[in-house]
Design brief:
- By secondary structure, the protein is mainly β.
- It has a single domain, classed as Beta Barrel (Lipocalin), CATH 2.40.128.
- It is about 10% helix and about 45% strand.
- The chain has one helix and ten strands; from the N terminus they run H-E-E-E-E-E-E-E-E-E-E.
- A hairpin with an 8-residue loop joins strand 7 and strand 8.
Length: about 170
């Protein structure tokens, strides 16, 4: 039972992270970026590591817990339901997920991100985890130098022994 909740939390965090980066209300917000962080001790599923990769209106979230790894693809749309002091506010919808029986196609979440304070908040709106909230302490954030250059291609790899790797 514990491993199922850990996987669900991982997917939830990934879904929420993707939502944040597509909010056109904040013109200074990058539309291509990635983050990595651990879920805060005060949140459900604390200690789970979440990688969020946003590319305009789509995203990928990778969750790593002691019981395994999950992957969630989401679509991203701007949201206005976050606190007005939150720079990035997104609404995400699960497109598909692997290694998880928790996140289903169509599940939704709200994500708020503040890259300056290195905080990410996820609120599950529908699905098995509806009503769950999680805070992520971001340890790393990456923004490509030229986020408007559509000719750049990035390769993201997932390796069991190393983790997530990226190169341009």
């Amino acid at each position: 039972m514990t491993s199922m909740y850990a996987r669900l939390l991982t997917i939830l965090v990934l879904s929420a992270s993707l939502i944040l980066f597509a909010n056109p209300v904040h013109a200074q917000t990058p539309t291509k970026f990635s983050t990595k962080g651990a879920i805060s001790e005060s949140s459900n599923f604390h200690g789970v590591i979440l990688w969020t990769i946003i590319d305009n209106n789509k995203g990928t979230m990778i969750l790593q817990s002691p019981v395994g790894r999950g992957l969630v693809h989401v679509s991203i749309a701007p949201s206005t339901t976050c606190d007005s002091s939150t720079p990035i506010c997104l609404f995400s919808t699960v497109i598909d997920s692997t290694d998880s029986n928790v996140f289903k196609t169509g599940d939704t979440a709200r994500i708020s991100i503040n890259l300056d304070s290195k905080q990410e908040s996820l609120s599950m709106l529908t699905g098995v985890l509806a009503g769950f909230d999680a805070s992520v302490d971001l340890s790393n954030t990456w923004i490509p130098h030229s986020v408007t250059d559509s000719t750049k291609h990035y390769q993201i790899g997932l390796n069991e022994s190393i983790g997530v790797t990226a190169k341009s």
